[in-house]
TrEMBL record:
Coiled coil: none
Taxonomic placement: Bacteria, Pseudomonadati, Bacteroidota, Bacteroidia, Bacteroidales
A GO molecular-function descriptor: acyltransferase activity, transferring groups other than amino-acyl groups
Protein name: Enterochelin esterase and related enzymes
UniProt keyword terms in alphabetical order: Signal
Organism this protein belongs to: uncultured Dysgonomonas sp
InterPro entries: AB_hydrolase_fold, Esterase-like, Mycobacterial_A85_antigen
Domain of life, per lineage: Bacteria
Pfam families: Esterase
Signal sequence region: 1-17
Amino acid sequence: MKSILIYLGLFSISAFASAQKSVVMTKTMKSEILGTEKEYTIYLPHDYDNSDKKYPVLYLLHGAWGNSHSWVEKGNIEEITNKSTGASEALAMIIVMPDARGIDEDFGGKNMGYFNVPDWRYEDYFFEELIPYIDENYRTIANKNNRAVAGLSMGGGGAIAYAQRHPSFFSSAVSLSGCVGYCSSENARKIDIDFDKSLGETDPTLFVQNITDEQTAELKTIKWYVDCGDDDYLYDGNIALYKAMREKGIPLEYRMKDGGHTWSYWQDSLPAVLLFCSINFLRN
């Protein structure tokens, strides 16, 4: 760990010294799978425009009824990331914040979420279109070792499920206050039964409980990190996931702090997430 942190320091100081300013912008791409333009917000590190370097990528997922702007407008992602890289606590990286709103986007929209439902194959879009598009249009290090996924709430569950279902894509997966136990809230049922059904079908805890030995070996190639506050209504589901992973012998770092399902909790957690992903980029 000490040698990794020293390397982080040397890397970040060098990048910061030649830096100008980080860039956050919202753009759109055409999705043939979804049949529409899809929005994404992207953070480019300080020296992106002043070098030809390639960077690791973190896909950072928003929660229910959020959008690609949520981590910028409510999560203070740019300032926190700049502070972490400037303090040698994270590598310079590209951060992609996708938009998981569905059709007719009022209140999240019909088919909101990260998984495939009838007539809205969002998971296929993410892996078959979004990731290749980002790798093609930005200077990414386009491999598993330099790609991570993280998210909060619905996005936390999405991050864990994506890494479980597509282990060849990510070196690390992080959930903050994640919906990792089946979320069958009445609110979700009122919005869209397919949304509720998709969460049950992709439940990360049930997935772990039913995996084969081969799948277990694949999940051990990923570093896992779960953080949920002691006052969070999703606390029990997160503990259940932790226990299920331990029973399968899959290492998972679990963090619990005082707090609930709030943006202040997630902002406070974000520096540790960036450090965790950075360390695992370097280990690979």
